[in-house]
Write a structure and sequence with these properties.
89 residues, alpha/beta, 3-stranded parallel sheet, 4 helices
Length: 89
């Protein structure tokens, strides 16, 4: 599961939100999810601490940019995967 938080310092609340949602979606789809929070801002120290204890990966903008440039992904591939995901819902 991925959540994006674009504005201001990202606090522990973002970690709590995705971790709480994890249980719901794992039960609904009968799958295990890894958790990721992406932001173009900084993460607070409380968010970093809580993310470590709850196995939530934090990705900052520069890390995301590196990941995108290292992998050649087209918008058509994104649409294809999104279409497949929507069929499950």
């Amino acid at each position: 599961m991925i959540t994006c938080k674009p504005i201001g310092d990202i606090t522990h609340e973002a970690i709590q939100e995705i971790y709480t949602a994890k249980n719901y979606y794992e039960e609904r789809f009968n799958e295990k999810f890894k958790l990721i929070v992406i932001s173009n801002s900084d993460f607070s120290s409380s968010a970093e601490i809580l993310s470590r204890s709850n196995q939530v990966n934090l990705i900052k903008r520069y890390q995301l940019e590196k990941m995108i440039s290292a992998n050649d992904v087209s918008i058509q591939e994104v649409y294809k995967h999104e279409s497949q995901r929507m069929k499950k819902i």
